[in-house]
Design goal:
Elements lengths: L2 H31 L4 H28 L7 E3 L5 E4 L2 E4 L2 H10 L3 E2 L5 H13 L12 E2 L2 E2 L2 E6 L7 E9 L3 H4 L3 H5 L11 E14 L6 E5 L3 H15 L2 E7 L15 E6 L2 H8 L10
Parallel strand pairs: 3-12
Antiparallel strand pairs: 1-2, 3-9, 4-7, 5-6, 7-8, 8-9, 9-10, 11-12
Organism: Neoaquamicrobium microcysteis
Pfam family, one: LssY_C
InterPro entries: LssY-like-C_dom (IPR025902)
């Protein structure tokens, strides 16, 4: 990007930010303030701005500033950029489950009213909940198929976690095709041999930087979490043919990352069982 283009981009962002602030103060707060007490007006303004206005503004701005780029991040339900894609594993779902179980990670519960309440209670009381649910993030037009986590301490307040989406094509082969990221294929996770993952570390609860919505606070160093996941799988002895790939272009995101994606094949269940009895351990899932 040239210096002129960079300054034009900054000017555009400044104008959008200024216009958004003006709209929130004059068109939302002042109108509500005329009808209800100040405290209620501030609360309603926050809810409208954080959950309606700002997500729409950010989505529209990203669409303009990052047009024609292949996304390498997942999306939240409101369409905003979320966790970066940083791990791709080749193998069947039973291999994926076995690999993370061997590494000491747990499968996350489905997000239901009951599991959400249990997580809230565990968070407040600092009580262990090793299978605490994840919020939904989206890739290929659908929410994650499975997620794994490892507590940091004995509470869901902090945890290592990674979401996976089943895919048909190897990311290394399809990464240059924008349709690979945007279409919504119908995939049976039980038959998938490719798992596209996005791993980050939860460090507590807080406000999102762009919309000020209340959510888990996430460590911005996504590369550190990627390497933590990789180290756990290596220690468990479940990955082979390791390499880093760099398909596509990055999109706007708050994470600090070199953009590389860890790519490996999961060892077959047969080869793992064979290794325990002294058999050859070079079987690779295809």
């Amino acid at each position: 990007m040239t210096r002129t283009a960079r300054w034009m981009q900054r000017a555009f962002i400044f104008l959008i930010a200024s216009g958004t602030l003006w709209f929130i103060v004059t068109q939302i707060f002042e109108r509500i303030d005329q009808r209800v007490p100040v405290f209620v007006a501030l609360l309603l303004t926050y809810v409208i701005a954080a959950y309606l206005v700002l997500p729409w503004i950010v989505r529209a701005s990203v669409a303009v500033l990052r047009r024609n780029r292949i996304p390498r991040v997942t999306r939240a339900a409101d369409g905003l950029a979320a966790d970066p894609v940083n791990v791709v594993l080749i193998g069947r779902q039973e291999q994926l489950d076995a690999a993370f179980a061997a590494a000491g990670w747990h499968v996350a519960d489905a997000l239901t009213f009951r599991s959400a309440v249990k997580m809230a209670v565990s968070f407040v009381l600092n009580r262990s909940y090793p299978t605490a649910p994840f919020s939904a993030l989206y890739l290929f037009g659908r929410r994650q198929d499975i997620g794994f986590q490892e507590d940091v301490g004995d509470s869901p307040r902090k945890r290592h976690h990674i979401r996976f989406w089943a895919a048909h094509a190897d990311l290394e082969e399809a990464g240059g095709d924008p349709a690979y990221w945007t279409r919504r294929p119908h995939i049976d996770p039980a038959r998938s041999h490719v798992w596209v993952g996005a791993g980050t570390t939860d460090t507590g609860f807080g406000f999102q930087s762009m919309t000020w919505q209340i959510s888990h606070r996430v460590d911005r160093d996504a590369d550190a979490e990627r390497e933590h996941v990789v180290a756990a799988l290596r220690a468990a002895g479940w990955v082979a043919d390791e390499r880093y790939i760099e398909p596509g272009e990055p999109v706007g995101t708050r994470f600090v990352t070199d953009g590389r994606i860890f790519h490996a094949r999961l060892l077959s269940l047969g080869s793992k069982r064979g290794s325990r009895t002294g058999a050859d351990d070079d079987g690779i899932a295809t």
